[in-house]
Description:
With 58 residues, the chain is mostly helical. The protein is built from three helices and no strands.
Amino acid sequence: MAEGKTTQDIAVLMDISPTMVEKHLRLARAALDVETTAQAVAKGTLLNQIFTRIDKPA
């Protein structure tokens, strides 16, 4: 989400269903006490709880 990916994009990348992605986003919003995913991304970033995977060079 932080990188502009859709729920479907994330589901494909993680090999899980879009429903599972939505469930985890809902739980994250609840844990961060926010209403929208954009708010969750912003708050998670401010709290250093958003981590990105850095691909190792081939």
